[in-house]
């Protein structure tokens, strides 16, 4: 009887050991298969062209994809003097299923007008009307309330001003009245000590830039009018 029990125990031990090995092997196979499908593709697919003299743009575009600054894919088109000089696209529109980014891939764009506002500021700097290091109180003294006196143009453009959002509720009527918006901005308290931290100025950026342009442009134009006159209206023209 004891021999039968010993034999049964031995068989049970062998079966349990085999089951453990089977489980371990199954887990390893699952991880291996999962790794194959989840592995990030190493090859960077870039298509399109650049005109002679713009090769550095393509190099930077490829580097952005290789270094994962662009997590999936991207496209870039540049016109210079009304001529298409850069037209690139690359990476993946869906990396998980290896769907390549195509020339006609549609993407969502956020905050593209911030680049336009920054370009308008850059044009004023280029005309030597302002400097990036200028404190905003230099041409807008009332802005300095509540500890904002040290804020520079550069800090606004770099999202360092501390005005990432406004506490004051803004109506549609307020948003269309630049003088009311000026008062709201003047009375706002920074959300952190200006210059010490970055916080994305998602909504406030444009209103602040508009006030800067109105106060430094000799014609006192709004951001919209300045852009229409100086950039959009002179596209392709040499001034």
**Structural domain count:** 2
| Second CATH tier, the architecture of the largest domain | 3-Layer(aba) Sandwich
CATH class of the largest domain: Alpha Beta
Please, what is the CATH homologous superfamily of the largest domain?
DD-peptidase/beta-lactamase superfamily
Oligomeric assembly:
single chain
Enumerate the spans where pLDDT stays under 50 for 5 or more consecutive residues: none
Q: What is the residue-averaged pLDDT?
A: 87
N-to-C SSE series? HEHEEEHHHHHH
What is the tally of beta strands?
Answer: 4
Shape: extended
Query: How big is the Rg?
Result: 30 Å
CATH-defined topology of the largest domain: Beta-lactamase
Kindly describe this structure:
Helix 3 (112-126) runs parallel beside helix 7 and helix 6 crosses helix 7 (204-216). The chain has helices at residues 2-38, 55-66, 112-126, 153-157, 172-175, 178-187, 204-216, 223-232, and strands at residues 46-50, 73-80, 83-94, 99-100. The N and C termini lie far apart (107 Å). Strand 3 and strand 4 form a beta hairpin. The longest helix has 37 residues, at 2-38. The relative contact order is 0.09. It contains eight helices and four strands, in the order αβαβββαααααα. It folds into two domains: 46-100, no CATH class; 112-232, DD-peptidase/beta-lactamase superfamily (Beta-lactamase, 3-Layer(aba) Sandwich). The protein is of the alpha+beta class and 239 residues long.
Entry summary:
This is Beta-lactamase-related domain-containing protein. With 239 residues, the chain is of the alpha+beta class. The chain has helices spanning 2-38, 55-66, 112-126, 153-157, 172-175, 178-187, 204-216, 223-232, and strands at 46-50, 73-80, 83-94, 99-100.
């Amino acid at each position: 009887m004891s021999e039968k029990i010993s034999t049964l125990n031995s068989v049970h031990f062998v079966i349990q050991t085999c089951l453990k090995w089977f489980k371990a092997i199954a887990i390893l196979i699952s991880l291996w298969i999962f790794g194959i499908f989840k592995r990030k593709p190493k090859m960077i697919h870039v298509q399109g062209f650049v005109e002679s003299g713009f090769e550095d743009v393509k190099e930077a575009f490829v580097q952005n994809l290789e270094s994962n600054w662009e997590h999936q894919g991207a496209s870039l088109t540049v016109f210079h003097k009304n001529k298409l000089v850069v037209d690139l696209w690359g990476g993946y529109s869906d990396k998980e299923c290896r769907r390549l980014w195509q020339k006609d891939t549609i993407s969502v764009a956020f905050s593209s007008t911030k680049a336009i506002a920054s370009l308008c500021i850059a044009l004023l700097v280029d005309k030597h009307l302002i400097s990036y290091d200028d404190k905003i109180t230099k041409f807008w003294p009332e802005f300095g309330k509540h500890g904002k006196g040290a804020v520079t143009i550069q800090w606004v453009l770099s999202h360092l001003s501390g005005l990432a959002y406004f506490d004051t509720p803004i109506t549609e009527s307020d948003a269309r009245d630049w003088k009311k918006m000026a008062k709201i901005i003047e009375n706002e308290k920074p959300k952190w000590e200006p210059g010490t931290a970055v916080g994305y100025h998602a909504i406030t950026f444009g209103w602040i830039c508009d006030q800067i342009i109105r106060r430094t442009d000799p014609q006192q134009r709004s951001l919209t009018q300045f852009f229409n006159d100086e950039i959009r209206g002179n596209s392709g023209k040499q001034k």
